[in-house]
Design goal:
The protein is of the alpha/beta class. It has helices spanning 9-45, 52-57, 59-67, 72-76, 82-85, 125-133, 158-181, 194-209, 229-238, 292-295; strands spanning 48-49, 91-96, 105-110, 115-120, 139-141, 155-157, 186-192, 215-221, 243-248, 269-272, 278-281. It comes from Lactarius akahatsu.
Length: 318
């Protein structure tokens, strides 16, 4: 056998090898890109726009949340102006708070919605955003006397927990009285801003304390993150999809406290986009740009003026 030596074979091999490496890199990049596109596609698949009838069904509860900004003397007499007039058949049972040390709250029954209403007042947007971004707070386990049986790994914002605990027994008493008086079997807890955080904690609290025959749902507006990952997971399982938190456009409040601090949203987000559509965003902290985390990746991309609304034409405040 004759071996023939080709003087250019080495250089051809180098060219061939280099070409192969380039192709492999391009293929690898294509796989990564395909994976990203697929992940983004999966993320988008579950996002659905609410119908006009679904959007309008939230209007009474939006007004109930807005009414919580009114003085207790006007909510107990149901004479708070346009917000009260929007729910004319509401039967107030109790109201309280001083708007300072304790946020306003009220309890009553809505015949048209066939549910007991519990509503919590929110707070000033600028001050609240500052409080939620200065990291002068920590995560703590829920009070076992109020939340018996909740795992100790479930932790929430200490300030939210303290505020909710200050009114919890009183609110429970009046909720039970209202359920009995109106032979009701449903409770809806509403709130905006800080009030939405309190509504979520109250929803969990009432679900634990009330009979299993009573349905408890939470509807929050501009809700900040309330607890850690275990809290979000536990609420998703325990309340069984009975939580809706509605975010308006580029509102920065729903993206704080940050996930880097250990906070996570529960499922149930509805995001009102710049075009006015209401998008149902599946999962926790959905990062699609159709949802709040993707639309407002940091507070500098947010707009505080979006926090108070409008939520389908309704601005928060008394």
């Amino acid at each position: 056998m004759v071996l023939v030596h080709c003087p250019v074979s080495a250089s051809l091999f180098v060219v061939f090898a280099s070409t192969i490496m380039v192709l492999l890199r391009q293929y690898a990049f294509a796989l990564v890109l395909a994976g990203l596109v697929q992940a983004a596609s999966v993320k988008r698949q579950g996002i659905t726009a609410l119908s006009s009838s679904q959007i309008s069904s939230y209007a009474p509860f939006t007004h109930f949340a807005s009414t919580a900004y009114c003085d207790p003397s006007s909510t107990i007499s149901w004479s708070c102006g346009s917000n009260c007039e929007a729910n004319p058949d509401f039967q107030p049972v109790a109201s309280g708070g001083d708007g300072g040390g304790t946020q306003y709250w009220y309890v009553g029954y809505s015949p048209s919605q066939s549910t007991v209403i519990v509503a919590h007042q929110g707070t000033d947007t600028s001050e609240f955003l500052a409080d939620l971004t200065d990291a002068d707070f920590f995560l703590e386990s829920l009070d076992s006397s109020l939340f018996p049986g909740v795992p100790s790994s479930v932790e929430v914002h200490d300030g939210f927990a303290s505020e909710q605990a200050s009114t919890a027994p009183t609110i429970l008493y009046f909720v039970e009285e209202t359920l009995l008086a109106y032979d009701a079997s449903s409770v809806t807890v509403v709130g905006h801003s800080l009030g939405a955080a309190l509504a979520l904690l109250d929803g969990v609290y009432l679900r634990i304390q009330l009979s299993s025959s009573v349905n408890v749902q939470v509807i929050g507006y501009g809700m900040p993150r309330v607890g850690n990952q275990d809290f979000a997971n536990w609420v998703d399982g325990y309340l069984g999809g009975q939580v809706t938190h509605i975010n308006n456009r580029e509102d920065p409040i729903p993206i704080v406290p940050g996930r880097f601090l250990g906070f996570h949203h529960v499922s149930g987000e509805v995001h009102i986009t710049d075009s006015g559509t209401w998008e149902s965003c599946p999962g926790q902290d959905n990062t699609s740009t159709q949802c709040i985390v993707g639309d407002v990746p940091n507070i500098f991309d947010g707009d505080e003026s979006d926090h108070d609304g409008p939520y389908s034409g309704i601005e928060m405040g008394c």
